[in-house]
């Protein structure tokens, strides 16, 4: 691969020396383009002087654009970048693979991706732990005098030498998965804060990561209207509503937020709208500027307090 | 049922005869005598072939494939076609597509947005077939914008997912609107609903004017 890269660099150097002569010789070949374009011809990927991606000559495909469609293999042969179609495609394959691989790595390394993977793994582990814990309860429930529930009970089952060993190892899995949940939560906290400091301050790290995961990334979340963020995680209810079978959902995963849970039922719709609005703003600040803006926290607090006081004044008026 | 293009056969797999192409194995698809099963339930293009549509896939021709996803379908296309440009916008499926492309020298993975065709204009050559299966709003518009890459007379094999356009509108209304837009640059030769294999999907065969 390295050898080929070097060979490519050498040929590229040669075309540059040819200067204007190359232009003239390419000229007639550009005619069979599908869209005719009277503007000066735009360069093909192999003609770009320097790559905007990575170090020059590291084997990617430079970013670029072209309005017209051209027979690039023929142009590359004419410009003596390659000798024939076969070697053109060989080079193109190698370079597009390298470029796509690099872009994937870049994308996956980004903090919001890591937070997404992490919170999804955390939710998977918790779901599995609960499911297995129920199995342990059902199995061990008939064998012990003081049955219990959840991870705590699994811990007791695991430590009880009188129970069947398969049951005890199953309980061990539950305990281990629960430990894994806590480990992942620690990571989610760090990753969310790094990737989206404002959203994390307002929503808490786990909810922030969940919103990012549901949207498919911080950028997509930042581009969504607040009404969409409000119902992220309530898709089935939303579609039922759009079909005309149900009222519109008030909230999706933001339900877990204190501002909604601790607000009286009649004001939860307002609280959800207000919260979604502020979280959207926070996500946008995180994506577009990345700096922490503490005033957002105060704004959210004020809004929620005003909504709640509305309820208390109404109650006072009723009395 | 129309004749199958060169490179695609009906191969016996156990008790069934199924569509198949010849190439390096991709996942857990059944193989027989070096032929890889191409399941119409997993691939909309295979569903179109199964329904007897001529998708315009020809041995050795150049193809632009929009919405390559993890590469299940595009692997079969590349088994048959010549240079195959596979555009996919999301990084997660691109990871799988890279595996598929690794042992297919005629497959070129491009992490690009099909809604912005000029962003790959410096890479993609004029093609004989445009395959499009993108789950985004404005699917017909994407097909129209990418017509620039089709040679005049080249084929369009398009899948319109009704729910990507508008979850509330009846599919027929969505399809009607799509046809109107396509007629700007394409002559529509054939269309069929893929409901037997894929719910709420319409397949369209067009020809660039």
Keywords:
heterodimer; A: 319 residues; mainly alpha; Serum Albumin, Chain A, Domain 1; 3 domains; 15 helices; 67% helix; flat; disordered N terminus; B: 209 residues; alpha/beta; Rossmann fold; seven-stranded mixed beta sheet; four-stranded antiparallel beta sheet; globular
Description:
The complex is a heterodimer of chains A (319) and B (209). Chain A is mostly helical. Helix content of chain A is 67%, strand content 0%. Chain A is flat, with a radius of gyration of 30 Å. Chain B has a single domain, classed as Rossmann fold. A seven-stranded mixed beta sheet of chain B has the order 7-6-5-8-9-11-10, sandwiched between helices. In chain B, strands 1-2-4-3 form a four-stranded antiparallel beta sheet. In chain B, strand 6 (84-88), helix 3 (91-102) and strand 7 (107-111) form a beta-alpha-beta unit. In chain B, helix 4 packs parallel to helix 6 (171-182). The model of chain B has no long low-confidence stretch (mean pLDDT 93). Classes of the chains: A mainly alpha (319), B alpha/beta (209). The A-B interface holds A 33-35, 42-45, 48, 61, 63-73, 89-90, 92-93, 96-97, 99-101, 103-104, 107-108, 113, 216, 239, 242-243 and B 83, 90-91, 94-95, 97-98, 101-102, 105-111, 118-119, 121-126, 148-152, 167-168.
Q: What is the fold named in CATH at topology level of the largest domain in chain A?
A: Serum Albumin, Chain A, Domain 1
Total of domains of chain A: 3
Question: CATH superfamily name of the largest domain in chain A?
Answer: Nop domain
DSSP helix fraction of chain B: 10-25%
How is this fold's topology laid out?
The complex is a heterodimer of chains A (319) and B (209).
Chain A: H1 2-18, H2 20-26, H3 72-78, H4 85-109, H5 111-141, H6 150-159, H7 165-195, H8 197-203, H9 205-215, H10 218-223, H11 226-230, H12 235-242, H13 258-261, H14 268-288, H15 295-318
Chain B: E1 8-13, E2 16-22, E3 31-32, E4 35-37, H1 44-50, E5 63-66, H2 72-80, E6 84-88, H3 91-102, E7 107-111, E8 127-132, H4 139-145, E9 150-161, H5 162-165, H6 171-182, E10 186-193, E11 201-208
Parallel strand pairs in B: 5-6, 5-8, 6-7, 8-9
Antiparallel strand pairs in B: 1-2, 2-4, 3-4, 9-11, 10-11
